[in-house]
């Protein structure tokens, strides 16, 4: 028996759209969200019940990076300095205590090279308690 040719065949898309929506709902419901914060490699201080064991005479090193020149201007404890002198000062600090807090304040217009130089000096002298702020 021969089939009768249709004049205008139409494809009904409703069932296909229903299946696609059901698949989307299935994948949205069954997807496992990864917790990105558990995979961050950040050193956080351990909680302690008592005050820290640090001496009351510990100093805080303040380093400011300001715009100026090709490499910026570095201020070490409110005194203008260069990379070599900063390295010597940080070496002296590292001899007394490797846990000395270092606060680096960088102007938003200062060159990045100056910040990298300061961080390199800290890392080279094994001073890892560094906080960075913008001013």
Concise overview:
With 135 residues, the chain is of the alpha/beta class. The chain has helices at residues 14-30, 83-96, 112-124, and strands at residues 61-66, 73-76, 79-81, 102-106, 130-134.
Fraction of residues in helix: 25-40%
Query: Which H/E pattern describes the elements?
Result: HEEEHEHE
Cα gyration radius (Å): 31 Å
The computed structural class is: alpha/beta
Number of strands: 5
Q: How far apart are the first and last residues' alpha carbons, in Å?
A: 87 Å
List low-confidence stretches. Answer: none
User: What kind of sheet is the major sheet?
Assistant: 5 strands, mixed
Q: Which whole number gives the mean pLDDT?
A: 82
Shape descriptor reads: elongated
Task: Determine the strand fraction and express it as a percent band.
Answer: 15-25%
Number of helices: 3
The largest beta-sheet arranges its strands as: 3-2-1-4-5
């Amino acid at each position: 028996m021969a089939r009768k040719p249709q004049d205008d065949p139409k494809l009904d898309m409703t069932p296909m759209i229903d299946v696609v929506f059901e698949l989307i709902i299935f994948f949205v419901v069954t997807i496992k969200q990864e917790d990105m914060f558990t995979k961050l490699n950040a050193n956080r201080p351990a909680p302690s019940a008592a005050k820290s064991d640090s001496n009351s005479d510990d100093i805080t090193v303040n380093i400011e990076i300001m715009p100026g020149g090709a490499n910026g201007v570095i201020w070490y404890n409110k005194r203008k300095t260069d990379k070599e002198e900063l390295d010597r000062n940080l070496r002296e600090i590292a001899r007394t205590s490797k846990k000395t807090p270092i606060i680096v304040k960088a102007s938003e217009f200062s060159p990045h090279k100056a910040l990298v130089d300061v961080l390199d000096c800290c890392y080279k002298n094994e001073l890892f308690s560094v906080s960075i702020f913008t001013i």
